[in-house]
Each structure stands twice: as C-alpha cells, then as structure tokens.
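PROTEIN SPECIFICATION:
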Amino acid sequence: MRNTILISITLCIFSTISFADGRGNCSHIVRYDERNSRIFVVCPSVGEMNAEQIGQLVTEIFAQFDGPPDEYFISFFAREDLVGYKTDSGLEKAVSSGDWAKAYLGEYYTHSHEITLWPALPEKRVVLQLPLP
C-alpha cells in the first residue's frame, strides 16, 4: 500500500512537470519502427518551440532507450490518428486531402542534429540546427 501511494505521488509529480511548460507529453512515443529507425511522437506544439527546447525534447525521447542512438529519425505529428508514413494503409484520405502533410510537424535526424519543421509543406519548411547534447 505504501509503495502504491509513493508510485502515485511520483507519477503525479512527473505528470505535472511534463505539462507545466505547455508542451504536453511530447516525449511519449506512439509508434516505433525499428526496421526503418524511426520514432513517431505526437507533439502539437513542436513548431512553437525553439532549437534549445526541441533539443531537450529529443534528449527526453532518446532517454527511453538503452544506449546512445545511432542513426534515427523522429517524426513529430499534431494528431495520433495521422501518425505514420504517407504510404500507410488507412491514411490515403488524409494524404489526398492534405491533412497528413499539415499534421506532419517535424522530422529530426540524429546524424545532422537538425529538425525540419513542416517537412511536407515546402512553403512553410524551416530547418533548425539543434544544440549538441
């Protein structure tokens, strides 16, 4: 019983920390594609963050794995129902309507330490160099 209460208090504290900066739980991995070295995360506010904040977020995401990441991509989406590759079955309608492109908010690549914001929207695309961890 005592351990259950301690765990509950700890979870409440961490939940408060995660939501205190307005990002929500942007480090929660919703899909992991080990074969293609890609991690999918829902983070509607990633486009409003600066390079330092995104760098911290990337560190939080990779902290969930053992050992340092080698070559990985992190795809940031606005909505969980649109997470995935544009060729995934079930996303055809969202791709053709442009909703998938609008929801695909960012792509981070480990080797360049860069994030491309709005990678599927050439007119909005921005590339940020993130600070090294």
